[in-house]
């Protein structure tokens, strides 16, 4: 068996995430954690991303790789505000380890409209 890493669980933080001033009207509006795409579809797209899996990373996890009750965690964070397209390269390893950066950075995940985050 060849060990590999994959995204297993995703947490979406819903609701208001902050505010911004609309350029045209000068009106203050809130960013909300919503998009036109269902969370399940976004999660599926993220789950298909190529997570860096090399011998050094696998060895760092040691015996916990084979222990189904105590799997190691690699956490990624994503902070984007629309309007924009969110790409795989926008996911950042929480611990700052650059060896865990998604290897293909140009995979589009979702488009965000104005006021979406």
Topology:
Blueprint: E1 16-21, E2 28-32, H1 39-47, H2 55-61, E3 76-77, E4 84-87, E5 92-93, E6 108-112
Antiparallel strand pairs: 1-2, 3-5, 4-6
Description:
The protein has a single domain, classed as RNA Polymerase Alpha Subunit, Chain A, domain 2, CATH 2.170.120.12. The chain contains two helices and six strands, in the order ββααββββ. The protein has helices spanning 39-47, 55-61, and strands at 16-21, 28-32, 76-77, 84-87, 92-93, 108-112. The strands form three sheets. Strands 1-2 form a two-stranded antiparallel sheet. A hairpin with a 6-residue loop joins strand 1 (16-21) and strand 2 (28-32). The N and C termini lie far apart (39 Å). InterPro entries: RNApol_insert_sf.
Summarize the structure.
This protein has 117 residues and is of the alpha+beta class. The chain has helices at residues 39-47, 55-61; strands spanning 16-21, 28-32, 76-77, 84-87, 92-93, 108-112. It has one domain: Beta Complex (RNA Polymerase Alpha Subunit, Chain A, domain 2).
- Give the neighbour order of strands across the main sheet: 1-2
Q: What would CATH call the homologous superfamily?
A: DNA-directed RNA polymerase, insert domain
> In angstroms, what is the radius of gyration?
17 Å
* Order of H and E elements: EEHHEEEE
Examine the secondary-structure arrangement and name the CATH architecture.
Beta Complex
Let me know the largest β-sheet: 2 strands, antiparallel
CATH topology-level fold name:
RNA Polymerase Alpha Subunit, Chain A, domain 2
Provide the residue-averaged pLDDT: 79
Instruction: Work out the strand percent.
Output: 15-25%
Assembly state:
single chain
Shape: elongated
List low-confidence stretches: none
Helix content: 10-25%
Total count of domains = 1
SS elements, strand count: 6
> What is the CATH level 1 assignment?
Mainly Beta
Q: Quickly give the structural class.
A: alpha+beta
Tally of individual helices? 2
Ends: how far apart?
39 Å
């Amino acid at each position: 068996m060849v060990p590999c890493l994959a995204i297993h669980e995703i947490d979406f933080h819903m609701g208001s995430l902050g505010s911004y001033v609309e350029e045209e009207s000068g009106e203050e509006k809130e960013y909300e954690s919503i998009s036109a795409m269902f969370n399940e579809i976004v999660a599926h797209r993220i789950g298909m991303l190529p997570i860096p899996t090399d011998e050094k990373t696998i060895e760092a996890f040691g015996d916990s790789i084979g222990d189904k009750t105590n799997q190691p965690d690699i956490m990624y964070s994503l902070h984007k505000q629309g309007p924009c397209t969110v790409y795989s390269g926008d996911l950042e390893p929480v611990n700052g380890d650059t060896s865990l950066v998604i290897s293909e950075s140009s995979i589009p995940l979702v488009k965000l409209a104005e006021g979406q985050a």
